[in-house]
Amino acid sequence: MSDYKKYRMGVVGLGEGRSIISAALQSDRWELVNICDLNEELCRERINEFGLNRYTTDYNDLLKDKDIDVIAIYTPDQLHGLHIQQALKAGKHVICTKPVLASLDEAKVLLEYQKKYN
């Protein structure tokens, strides 16, 4: 029995997010709960590639899912700030590919969200 927590992850953005899906499936620290992309064909491709059983094309499904602790954000760069804010507001932890944010103004807003939603 391990002494560490296993985190339950949702991934949004399945082009770049392919790498974290692969890493999560090879780790005993992560459980991949659901994946998300606007492109349903790409969702199906990842389902088949990795032997997964769930996907959604609506990011809100990940945000509302009580079985998800962490959202891995691999969407286009200009959407990172918004997607991080939404995840924090939903009470999720966040992993985000780089660049995390497009500007220092976004960083200020994100710090405010982090403080507000702990």
Strand fraction? 15-25%
Low-confidence stretches: none
Structural class: alpha/beta
The CA-CA distance between the termini, in Å, is 30 Å
Which key features would you list for this structure?
four-stranded parallel β-sheet, single chain, 118 residues, globular, alpha/beta
Describe the fold and architecture.
With 118 residues, the chain is α/β, with parallel strands linked by helices. 42% of the residues lie in helices and 18% in strands. It is built from five helices and four strands; from the N terminus they run E-H-E-H-H-E-H-E-H. It has a four-stranded parallel β-sheet with strand order 2-1-3-4, with helices on both faces. The mean pLDDT is 94.
The gist of it:
Helix content is 42%, strand content 18%. With 118 residues, it is of the alpha/beta class.
Spell out the blueprint of helices and strands.
Blueprint: E1 7-12, H1 18-25, E2 30-36, H2 40-50, H3 59-64, E3 70-73, H4 80-89, E4 93-96, H5 104-117
Parallel strand pairs: 1-2, 1-3, 3-4
Helix pairs in contact: 4-5
